[in-house]
Amino acid sequence: MAAALEQVRALVAPIVERGGAEVYDIEHESGVLRIMVDRRGGIDVDTIGALSREISAALDEHDPFPGQRYLLEVSSPGIERKLRLPEHFRAQIGNEVSVKVRVRVDGRRRLDAIVVDADDEAVDVTYEGADGRASARIPYDEIESARTIFHWGGEPSSSSGSRPTDKPTNKKASAR
Fold first, then answer.
1. 140-155 pLDDT, tens per residue?
2. Cα 45 vs. chain centroid, distance in angstroms?
3. CATH number for the domain running over 2-75
4. Main-chain phi, psi angles of 3, to 5 degrees
5. Which of 144, 38, 167, 37 is nearest to 98 (CA)?
6. Range 23-28, long-range pairs (CB < 8 A, 24+ positions)
7. Is it the case that residue 175 has pLDDT exceeding 50?
8. What DSSP character marks residue 1?
């Protein structure tokens, strides 16, 4: 399966780059081939539509899954995007993420943490522990799932009638 996904990446990356975007991630599960594309400043539906048509034609010509039926889905990774690859974590240095781990960290399986650093083996985070600010180095193979956290409208106010604004902000938190 991994070889087929690498074949898909090699096939679609030049198409996506010509469209002014980049491949964020590729997944193949439950009969769906999901290709997530993005570009600096965000990606619009017209670009996704055009890329979808080109990618579909290329996959029809060079079938990476001979004899298998699948549904092609070309989309944005979304505001709260999955983090799976080391480059996903590196792109989030200084940002808050939600991580679910296989092996408990500080007695917990779920952490909302700030990414401090990331290399090819693990991600370094800080989080609010039982005794104040704490740090952890989490190997990728111990991460069950991770995603970015998107805060609408910045910090919530203390008034009971507060609600999100219509302008999103990606809160950057500092590692203390």
1. 999 999 999 988 876 5
2. 19
3. 3.30.300.70
4. -65, -40
5. 144
6. 24/77, 24/81, 24/88, 25/77, 25/82, 25/84, 25/85, 25/88, 28/1, 28/4, 28/65, 28/70
7. no
8. -
pLDDT category at 50 given cuts 50, 70, 90 is very high
The candidate with the shortest Cα–Cα distance to 138, out of 172, 115, 158, is: 115
| Residue from 166, 85, 92 nearest 121 by CA | 85
Comparing C-alpha atoms, which of 82, 81, 84, 122 is closest to residue 103?
122
Beta-bridge partner residues of 57: none
The backbone torsions φ and ψ at residue 168, rounded to the nearest 5 degrees and listed phi first, read: -75, 150
Q: Where in the chain is the domain with CATH 3.30.300.70?
A: 2-75
Looking at domain 86-168, its CATH architecture is Roll (2.30)
The strand order across the sheet containing 32-38 reads 22-29, 32-38, 71-75
